Amino acid sequence: xxxxxxxDWHLGARLVERDRLPEHAALCDWLIRTLSxxxxxxLLLSGDVFDAANPPQDAVGLYFDFLKRLADLRTVKxxxxxxxxxxxxxxxxxxxxxxxFEVHVFGHAGENVVDLGDxxxxxxxxxxxxxxxxxxxxxxMTEVQAQVRAGIRDxxxxxxxxxxxxxxxxxxxxxxxxxxxxxxxxxxxxxxxIGNLGAVGADVFAGFDYTALGHLHRPQKVGGQENxxxxxxxxxxxxxxxxxxxxxxxVDTQGMKIETLVAPVTRVLTRVSVSRASMTxxxxxxxxxxxxxxxxxxxxxEADLDRQVREAAxxxxxxxxxxxxxxxxxxSAWQHHGPSLSELQPRKVFRELIKEKQIASEELYEVFDExxxxxxxxxxx
Length: 381
Prior knowledge:
- By secondary structure, this protein is an alpha/beta fold.
- It contains eleven helices and 17 strands.
- The longest helix is centred in the middle third of the chain and has 27 residues, at about 140-165.
- Belongs to the SbcD family.
- InterPro entries: Calcineurin-like_PHP, DNA_Repair-Maintenance_Comp, Metallo-depent_PP-like, Mre11_N, SbcD, SbcD_C.
């Protein structure tokens, strides 16, 4: 059996208010062709199908159009799990209909075992805290963390037992959407398990023949293990991922052969740092038609820096962000182009406020983190 592992599509995502739908549409076209050409038997999509709990309708339309084309192939089964960006109820709404087309969707936690014929899959979605423990008042954060991690470990152990009972000698595969300790993150991931509360070691997946992970956007092995992997996002979702080589994973269950499939680049993201004196010459090297984040090294603030950078680009590429790299003596008194509202993170804003008010209280941090987690759970429920 040949299985393709992907994750973190984030349909409906935007980058500095630029629509990514055309890129996602091109990705879906390529993937349909690839599933046929590579003779793939099963597609595993490990969470964050959408970028938000209430995605735009054009993103929802693209999702269902892809699933219709997948069903038309008549050769590929699919297992789709929810991520921390997804609404479990939104994903689950058409699941009974989709099941008739061999598309198995799991937004909520449970005993989510899928028999694909030549392999059995534990389709584990993002595990929210309420799936793992009952909270009580007065708990220390270390106690909560220990209970969450123990709950994740117990959940995968139960799934492994159920899969092995059904599979016999057939391969058993796990899916997951979480942070594995030792893995590399990027700027575009958003944790609901605050401060790596739900991060676990790769040993949690011991006993599975392959583990198809989502949540982290850089493709990578976990703990150096070939059979525990993040496929990564197929699109660069932030400028911090501009240099990443995006990919998916193909697993051949006969001999458990694993190979990487490079995903196509339909929009180049470029992160470049230039000096003020040679800005025009350096920007001439930026790939044409790309979207760029430009950082300019300055000796002193320049009020019209944004305009100067865009003029120097000459329309060859789109400048989405302009940042100033100033000496330390200048940055405290003046800052050019601070973060936009969409880039501000509540946790960071709260910590800056506490620092400004000179309040020394770790308990306030912990309470605020718990409130954030509760709010996120309600949004994505």
